[in-house]
Structure formats: structure tokens, C-alpha cells
Amino acid sequence: MLFDTHTHMDAPEFEEDRDEAIARAVEAGVGRMVNIGFNRETIPTTLALAEKYPFVYAAIGWHPVDAIDMQEGDLEWIESLCSHEKVVAIGEIGLDYHWDKSPKDVQHRVLREQIALAKRVKLPIVIHNREAHEDTIRILKEENASEVGGIMHAFSGSWETAKICLDMGFHLSFGGPVTFKNAKQPKEVLEKTPMDRLLIETDSPYLTPHPYRGKRNETAYVRLVAETAALLKGVSLEEIADCTTKNANKLFGIGQERE
After folding, report:
1. Is the whole model's pTM more than 0.90, yes or no?
2. Residues paired with residue 96 on neighbouring β-strands, in sequence order
3. 147-165, pLDDT tens digit by residue?
């Protein structure tokens, strides 16, 4: 069984064939997926998807690009939804210095607030880090994010950065870019990542893996990421599927009693 730990199957790109795309994922061997609700619009659609499909779980949080749009009461709203039986993480949260919609200081504040929230509700966090390695690591350390741990989503950093994240108790998740022929650094980092900290994802409809690069991504393609991971690790696809699924189940507390 494959576990896509990060997907956006509620996105408008799936408006015409969402049920069919999810069926293709199941046919490809995907047994579980975590859909990400990251703002006022996508949190409700994520929860609706998780309620419709028994194998879909939800992460809810506020994306750094949209940090400027967070209003008074939104954090309390997210916290109130954390008791939902399908909510397994706070995310995706973090920093994004590629787009300039939200000022850095606002992103920093919103990230810190959500790490504190994760501690209150005892859920792991899903970290979005784009072109902000240094500040992301600093804030995670300053806020003692290791208390809850979580996922470095679509990890794109160096092995040096990876080691810091691993030392803080985080898992590293790899998606479509690791399948690209010129993706030297992601391949090297995945190869060095301990098996018990390795996760796979699609981030669909984004970050489509080879050979579908340039087209819409979907959760079924997590199998291509798993195949690449198996080659890099020198193990079977079945072993990668089993290992990453066990890692995800343990991290998200799926199949376990919550405290």
C-alpha cells in the first residue's frame, strides 16, 4: 500500500474528474492520502473530501503565501476543527520567500502561532519551505517544534539542512522533483535519509513527476516517486511502500488511540 502524505485533490484542477482521479489512485496502489487544507477556502473542501472517503485524511493550517489574509478568529477556527476525527496534522504552514504576497514578518508570526497551536492540540506539523531554509530552521528551533515533529514537505534543501531537520525529529518527504533526471541534490538527500524518516508525496496537482512533467499531477503518480525511491535506496518497491506507509501511519497517529 502507498501513502501520499501531501495532496490537493480538492483543487479546481480536479473539478471535472475528481472521483475518477481518486479511483485511479486506488488502482495504482494508494491506500491512504492526506489532503491539505491551507486557507479559508480549502479547509472546508479538504474536510468534505476526508468525510467522503474513508482513506482520505486531512491536514489543516494557513499557508505562508496567504499569511497576510489571516484574520482575527481564523486561528481559533482552525483549532476548533482539530478535534475532527480525520484531522491528523497542522499544515501546510511555513515560509515562502518566492512569492511576495505576504511580508516576511507576517509569515514569521503566523508560523509561530501555528506551531504553538500544534503543541496545544498535540498534532504534527507539515512545513512548507520555499527559498527560506535559514529562517525556517531558526523558527522551528526557537519554537521548539521538535516537541510535535512533523514533515518537511517536498524537501528541496541540502543534506546539511536535512540533517538539522532530522535531528529535530522531522521526517523528509519527497515528491515529483526527485524523479527528474537533473535532480542531483534531491536524489542524494533521499539516498541518505534514514528509512524510518522517509515519506513520499505528490503535492498534486503540482510538481508532476517524470514522465508526466508539465501536465497535471495526481495522487496516482505517487507510485512513480516510490519507484524512484526504491531505485535510490536499492530496495524493492514493496519495501518502500511498506516503510513509508508505516512511517506515515505512526507520524499521523492513524490506527492508534489519541491521548
Report:
1. yes
2. 130
3. 999 999 999 999 999 999 9
